[in-house]
Amino acid sequence: MRPILLAGHERALTQIKYNREGDLIFSVSKDQQICVWFAHNGERLGTYRGHQGAIWTIDVDPTTTILASGSADNTIRLWDVKTGKCLKTWDFPTAVKRVEFNEDGTKLLGVTEKRMGHLGTIVVLDVKVDVEAEQADEKAMTIVCEESKATVAGWSYLSKYIIAGHEDGSVSQYDGKTGDLIYNIPIHELNQPITDLQWAPDRTYFITSSKDKTAKLITAKDLEVLKTYTADTPLNSATITPKKDFVILGGGQAAMDVTTTAARQGKFEARFYHKIFEDEIGRVRGHFGPLNTVAADPTGKGYASGGEDGYVRVHHFDKGYFDFMYEVERERQNRLAAAASA
Amino acid sequence: MATQKKHDWADDEELDETTTTTDLPPPQKIQNKDGTTTIIEYSYNDNGQKVKTTRRVRYVVRREVVNPRVAERKGWAKFGASANDPAGPAPDTTSVGENIIFTPSINWRKDSKDESKDPNAQSMRDKLKDKKVKCRICNGEHFTARCPYKDTMAPIGEAGTADMAAGLGDEAPAGAASLAGAAGPGKKGSYVPPALRGGPGGRDGERMGGKYGERDDFATLRVTNVSEMAEEQELRDMFERFGRVTRVFLAKDRDTGLAKGFAFISFADRNDAIKACNKMDGFGFRHLILRVEFAKKAQ
């Protein structure tokens, strides 16, 4: 496969998101602008300007009408996807590290940083998926993380729970309506921050990545660890691929921690693991720095990765990727085919 | 979508048909039985010769079902920084990377281990197999920086030549002894420059930063036949390819500011210096051919 290189950013990438149909890619970096690209050929559709600080996070609603972004300038902004116009700005006392829409796009959560005497919080905002509509100023709900600040958070299926990953390596489950803490379970190694949390398509389970060099597949309902993927480098991002049962992990020695360079250029590769069997099945190289974010195309045809080097690399998989199967998978398929024909 | 069939030279019987008539026959289109179309066109080439071009074309209609929302989005106008870009990917933001072969494999780990057996890594390992860490102070098997006698004793090769310090110093004790004998207490009354005064006790405090001077010398290259117009930065750029350059000195005329034709380049690592010496000797820079050799120790 020949990756498409997107060079729209001047600084390290922080997050990449595909929209629901997988035809648009939204990318944000520390250089204060949001870019939107066509996934099939890498053409840039536009940029969204207005943020005054590094942008940490982005999300698009399921209908690809409005876009939310969180930045180090202490704001969450809402944008019109089609025209690039800023629709609404919410101000917070500290930087916003993560935003995410719920499944129907009516609610938006934001994770704010712990800094300057303010505790880390998870805020919920009511959103109207309409470019013309007046958005509410008030927060619908605020969850304060007293013990350890949240680094990532997301909505479970039916917006029933809010799942948050914390700086101390634990994962919390909050009630989606009241904001009450239901569980807080130490999942990753103590004091190894959770760096990413991405959902399976039906939002019943999710994958977390952590600086403790592992990624884990966890159920949303009772926070049970289903699978563990062990890498040899701190991880910054993890995603679940639709269509094939794989997960993609991204990481690498952080630029500030690199003291030696190995022949293999410092492990800046996307790692593919089999979701069920937990085996590493391959790597894709290409970035010159650690991978900060990986995102899987919701159609399962490709993935995109963003690195500290400022590039987004969009990959469309070859046939070999789709043909790959474990022996047991192939046997099962043959059995099913035989049963269907009989 | 039109696809041009692979053109076989044997098919063009009359590709270079030279005629003097100026009128061209009208282009022809012939439907073939196998569903292809043959298009015959006539034109003149640069030499004024008439050229007949025969193409066989097959039209294939490929229908792709696209989500209507996706199709609608493809028609959106560009905005923001891309507002003035023409249709299609802009070359300044979008490019295609080199081909990556990615085929998932159960034995991926095993395969990648084999990769570590590649000849490059292997030869490096062979080279280093017989190498041992050797202290320059006491010849023990530890780094010089870790030597317990670091503060009390001077390196063995200190009084000898730079080459000894570079690790060829097997005869170092003998050399040091003879030199010390010649310059030290042997001839009483004759002046010995401080740098050459032997004995561990007599050296302290007399050589400021002497250790670094020593180190500099054995990884320093002397570059001669340098162009007058050369700049230090240019030399640095040229030599930095081989390793970390700690110092570049380009001799310049005080009045004119032009280079005098020689320079010294110090590397952090002697191996880099050796590499650079081999590669850059005879290198054409500006209009002259560089001569690169190891700097001789200043006595």
Automatic annotation (TrEMBL), chain A:
SMART domains: WD40. One of its GO terms (cellular component) is eukaryotic 43S preinitiation complex. InterPro entries: eIF3i (IPR027525), WD40/YVTN_repeat-like_dom_sf (IPR015943), WD40_repeat_CS (IPR019775), WD40_repeat_dom_sf (IPR036322), WD40_rpt (IPR001680). Gene3D superfamilies: YVTN repeat-like/Quinoprotein amine dehydrogenase. It holds the Pfam family EIF3I. Coiled coil: none annotated. It comes from the Eukaryota. WD repeats lie at residues 6-47, 48-89. The keyword Nucleus does not apply. It is found in: Cytoplasm. GO terms for molecular function: RNA binding; translation initiation factor activity. GO terms for biological process: formation of cytoplasmic translation initiation complex. The keyword Protein biosynthesis applies. SUPFAM superfamilies: WD40 repeat-like (SSF50978). Keywords: Cytoplasm, Initiation factor, Protein biosynthesis, Repeat, WD repeat. Component of the eukaryotic translation initiation factor 3 (eIF-3) complex, which is involved in protein synthesis of a specialized repertoire of mRNAs and, together with other initiation factors, stimulates binding of mRNA and methionyl-tRNAi to the 40S ribosome. The eIF-3 complex specifically targets and initiates translation of a subset of mRNAs involved in cell proliferation. Component of the eukaryotic translation initiation factor 3 (eIF-3) complex. Belongs to the WD repeat STRAP family. Belongs to the eIF-3 subunit I family. This is Eukaryotic translation initiation factor 3 subunit I. It comes from Thermothielavioides terrestris (strain ATCC 38088 / NRRL 8126) (Thielavia terrestris). The gene is TIF34.
Automatic annotation (TrEMBL), chain B:
GO terms for biological process: formation of cytoplasmic translation initiation complex. Pfam families: eIF3g, RRM_1. Residues 219-297 form the RRM domain. Gene3D superfamilies: 3.30.70.330. GO terms for molecular function: RNA binding; translation initiation factor activity. Residues 1-36, 105-129, 178-209 are annotated as: Disordered. Keywords: Cytoplasm, Initiation factor, Protein biosynthesis, RNA-binding. InterPro entries: eIF3_g, eIF3g_N, eIF3G_RRM, Nucleotide-bd_a/b_plait_sf, RBD_domain_sf, RRM_dom. PROSITE patterns: RRM (PS50102). GO terms for cellular component: eukaryotic 43S preinitiation complex; eukaryotic 48S preinitiation complex; eukaryotic translation initiation factor 3 complex. Its main location: cytoplasm. It is found in: Cytoplasm. RNA-binding component of the eukaryotic translation initiation factor 3 (eIF-3) complex, which is involved in protein synthesis of a specialized repertoire of mRNAs and, together with other initiation factors, stimulates binding of mRNA and methionyl-tRNAi to the 40S ribosome. The eIF-3 complex specifically targets and initiates translation of a subset of mRNAs involved in cell proliferation. This subunit can bind 18S rRNA. HAMAP family: eIF3g (MF_03006). Component of the eukaryotic translation initiation factor 3 (eIF-3) complex. Belongs to the eIF-3 subunit G family. This is Eukaryotic translation initiation factor 3 subunit G. It comes from Thermothielavioides terrestris (strain ATCC 38088 / NRRL 8126) (Thielavia terrestris). The lineage of its organism: Eukaryota, Fungi, Dikarya, Ascomycota, Pezizomycotina.
